[in-house]
Design goal:
By secondary structure, this protein is an alpha/beta fold. The chain contains eight helices and 17 strands. Helix 2 packs across helix 6. The chain is globular, with a radius of gyration of 19 Å.
Length: about 300
C-alpha cells in the first residue's frame, strides 16, 4: 500500500468529547487547522462507546460529518466526535450530493454489512438470521433487503424494537429462533450466533466481539460451519470502501420511507453528549438505533 504523504501528521483536531474515569467530558471546540472542515455532526456507536467507557482515558467516537461548502456533499471521516478534519484523510468517504445526515449515518452502518456480505461464499438469502437489534443489525437488515432477502429473522431480547419495522423482518426472542443456514452476528456475541446455526451453515461475524469472546474450534469442526470474518476494514480492493458507501447511500435515498428515518434516527445537541453517554448502559438509553450528535445546535 502506498504511504500517505502526510503520514505521521494528525489530520484532525478538536475532539469534542473525552472519556475520563468512565464518564464523558465535553471539550470546547477548537479552531480548524489549515485545510480542515468543521465537524458538524457525529454518529454514536453504542457498543464501541460502552467498551471505551470502561477502558483507559481517550477521545471518544470515530464517525464525524463535515463539508467544505454549505450546500456541498457530506464527508464522513473516521475521526473523534465533532473534530475538524481534512476531507482527504484516510478512510473518509463522500456521500452522494443531497444525502441528508441521517441517511449518511444509516449508510455508514449499512456499508459495514455490504462489505462483509461480499465476503460470504453463499448468495442464498432465503434462510437468514441476524443476531442483535442495534445500528449494526439495522444496517445488516437493510443491506440484506437491498440484496433481495424477503424474510429475515432478527433475534433480540428487546420488546418491540424499532428494527421490527424494517421490510421482511420477523423479531423473535433468543429461545424461540430455531437454527438457520446463514446467521450473522451483529451484536458481538459469536457464541449466541453459533447456537442458532444449523449444521453445515455459515456464521458471519459482523459485530465486533469482546476480546474475551470465544468460539470453540472443535465445535466449529464438528458442526462443519463456515466462519466468516466481516470486519469492514479487512483488506479490500482500492476504492471498495467509497464504492460500497455510494451504492448503499443511493439505495437508501431512493427506497427508505421518511417515517422510518424518523423511527430509527435521533439527533441530539452535542451539548447533551455527557448525559447521553451516561444513559448507554441503562434502560434510559435512546430507543432509536442510530443517534447523531449535532455540534451546531445549542
Amino acid at each position: 500500500m502506498p504511504r500517505d504523504k502526510h503520514e505521521g501528521r494528525r489530520r484532525y483536531a478538536g475532539a469534542r468529547i473525552r472519556l475520563e474515569g468512565g464518564r464523558a467530558r465535553p471539550v470546547p471546540a477548537a479552531e480548524p487547522g489549515p485545510g480542515m472542515v468543521e465537524g458538524r455532526f457525529s454518529v454514536l456507536s453504542p457498543g464501541t462507546e460502552r467498551r471505551h467507557l470502561s477502558g483507559p482515558d481517550r477521545e471518544a467516537g470515530y464517525m464525524t460529518l463535515g463539508r467544505t461548502e454549505d450546500t456541498g456533499p457530506w464527508v464522513l471521516a473516521p475521526v473523534p466526535h465533532g473534530a475538524s478534519f481534512e476531507p482527504s484523510c484516510p478512510g473518509a468517504v463522500t456521500a452522494p450530493p443531497g444525502t441528508e445526515p441521517r441517511l449518511v449515518a444509516l449508510a455508514r452502518f449499512q456499508m459495514m454489512a455490504c462489505l462483509g456480505l461480499d465476503r460470504l461464499s453463499t448468495t442464498d438469502l432465503g434462510d437468514v438470521t441476524v443476531v442483535g437489534s442495534g445500528p449494526v443489525a439495522l444496517g445488516c437488515v437493510l443491506e440484506l433487503t437491498r440484496r433481495g432477502a424477503s424474510r429475515i429473522r432478527v433475534v433480540t431480547a428487546r420488546r418491540r424494537p424499532p428494527i421490527s419495522r424494517a421490510p421482511g423482518v420477523i423479531c423473535v426472542p433468543p429461545g424461540q429462533a430455531g437454527r438457520g443456514r446463514l446467521v450473522i452476528d451483529a451484536a458481538g456475541v459469536p457464541a449466541s450466533a453459533a447456537g442458532l446455526t444449523a449444521p453445515g451453515g455459515v456464521i458471519g461475524l459482523l459485530g465486533t466481539p469482546d476480546t474475551t469472546a470465544r468460539l470453540g474450534t472443535l465445535e466449529v469442526h464438528r458442526a462443519a460451519w463456515t466462519l466468516v470474518g466481516m470486519h469492514e476494514l479487512a483488506p479490500a480492493s482500492e476504492g471498495a470502501y467509497q464504492e460500497a458507501f455510494t451504492r448503499v447511500a443511493r439505495w437508501l435515498t431512493g427506497h427508505l420511507d421518511a417515517d422510518l428515518a424518523d423511527l430509527w434516527c435521533r439527533t441530539v445537541p452535542g451539548s447533551r453528549a455527557p448525559e447521553l453517554f451516561d444513559s448507554l448502559a441503562t434502560p434510559d438509553r435512546p430507543a432509536e438505533p442510530v443517534v447523531l450528535l449535532d455540534w451546531g445546535a445549542a
